Amino acid sequence: MATKEFKKAARIILVGAPGVGKGTQAERLMKRYPQLSAVSSGDLLRESVRNKTPLGLEADSFIRAGNLVPDEMILKLILNELKSKRWVSSQSSVTDASPAEPSKNPSASFILDGFPRTAAQASRLDSLIPINLVVSLITPVNIILSRIASRWVHAPSGRVYNTDFNAPKVAGKDDITGELLTKRTDDDEETWKSRLRKFDETSQPLLEHYDRKGVLWTVKGNSSDEISPKLFQEFESRFA
After folding, report:
1. Rounded to 5°, angle at Cα 217 from 76 and 12
2. Could you tell me the CA-to-CA distances from 64 to 43, 56, 59 in Å, in that order?
3. What backbone phi and psi angles, to 5 degrees, belong to 162?
4. Which residues are registered as beta bridge partners of 162?
5. Could you say which DSSP state residue 179 is in?
6. Which of 46, 57, 142, 179 is 20 to 30 A from 170 via CA?
7. pTM
8. Coil, strand, or helix at residue 112?
């Protein structure tokens, strides 16, 4: 399939409950549209701490004290990454009164992962750089819980299997090593119901924020394979 050209830069956030397949959709988007890059706040934070940058050292002091890294610090990490790619002006700052003027070049297209998680964080991000598509991924709770019940892992390697759609070749054993598969300690139904409730509580104000901005689009499906074609179609109608 020929790669479709973008007519403008896409600045995207995917919002979805744990277990909905957000990572799968991000991977599929980037595979289908090589112009898209991933900007992960978690990866940027870990890299900054590992490289002992001034921002990383400051963030590490919060982490070691058992505190959350302040939003302002995460925003600086994101802005620094965008500046390093020349997707915003090198003069941009998180203290600017107005948002950075982002590059209109289609190559300046990215999926932002890990931030924002709340409406307050979204407001701060708005003041930094305008997001032009927020995708709300929805899969029924009973389907998500069924996926988790069917999930088995090979703990040493991190390989994940699902007896419904990605079963191991030999039941209960890792395909590569033949070692026994196990359940994650937190993969029980009550833990997941609690996670999903918490996600609903925090995500609703976030989605309402982006709905008011006119950039929210919702897609529903029982599986990633059901959602992906709808997502591609919407994406192309907006950007390709």
Report:
1. 30
2. 18, 12, 9
3. -140, 125
4. 151, 166
5. P
6. 142
7. 0.86
8. strand
